[in-house]
User: What shape does this take?
Amino acid sequence: MKWDTLDEEPCSLSRTVAVVGDRWTLLILRECFLRVRRFEAFQSSLQITRHLLSERLKKLVRFGILRRVPYSEAPKRYEYILTQKGLDLYPVIMAMVHWGDTHMGDERGRPLLHEHKSCGKLFDPVMVCSECGDVLHAKQVHVHAGPGRKEAVG
Amino acid sequence: MKWDTLDEEPCSLSRTVAVVGDRWTLLILRECFLRVRRFEAFQSSLQITRHLLSERLKKLVRFGILRRVPYSEAPKRYEYILTQKGLDLYPVIMAMVHWGDTHMGDERGRPLLHEHKSCGKLFDPVMVCSECGDVLHAKQVHVHAGPGRKEAVG
DNA sequence: GGCTATAGTTCTAAAATAGAACTGTCAAAC
DNA sequence: GTTTGACAGTTCTATTTTAGAACTATAGCC
Assistant: This one.
């Protein structure tokens, strides 16, 4: 497998995996959604090596998920802020958090609780069909080849 | 970071990442949801090395995401089938697919289209609040430390 | 007996990651 | 005006993972 061209595969999962499909990237994104923005803050809360953190941040900026924004001119210092493309990864992160809550919990209870500001309640994220609003289950979904697949396969 | 104890961290994302947080595992799960079940089938559709495929399948079985079920007695042959715990990863996979559709598309159009059998329409997955049913956005969510975090932190 | 199918295991080379030390800029403290 | 400390990285070597190919094992079929 050539990971360097994975983002061009005719498969949206492959393309997403090419960008966020490794441990550190997902953990960095968690921190982003927890409002962490600075190099030192990522490093100390994740205990990631500085080398890898630097690499991963560059990659996230390259793919347009984070923006590198100066917050100090002298010395030049930057922070990393989620773009809209990055914010749109929220369902991915929340789906993983919810699966962890459901299947990887221990006797201590949930690590984090999520409150929905607009309704004021603690909630779980639920994935529904955009058309009928029903909860989605794998067995109720039928997959068709779309135009992008047909063109690629021939 | 000690990846071998990541599944015990007081963070549901870490725990999920410990299990499915690498490229190959996510791609293998995609195949599972496309009804692939056998070693050779995974290997030829993913072009993964046999060694890694073997490792990843063992790990997914160990974590209860796949079951190794015999389908032939002589010679002994097994296939790998999603458990309920595995099926529950559907929102994670679909969230990634949808993000890829939205942000990593090219001029060829979507690789795959999803049809919801119960309503008969082509759909996108949408993440909503379990309490009020509204679409979730990162900025409308407030995070609290839960019991599992408080106990771990002290 | 030889060929094929399936599900692996074993081996070496290449790539990625860990861990620690080092660089450079500037502010504030002494 | 020299030292200290904060911040955001880069560079280096050692270890771990992954890639790629070859090999093993069981059994059916010709």
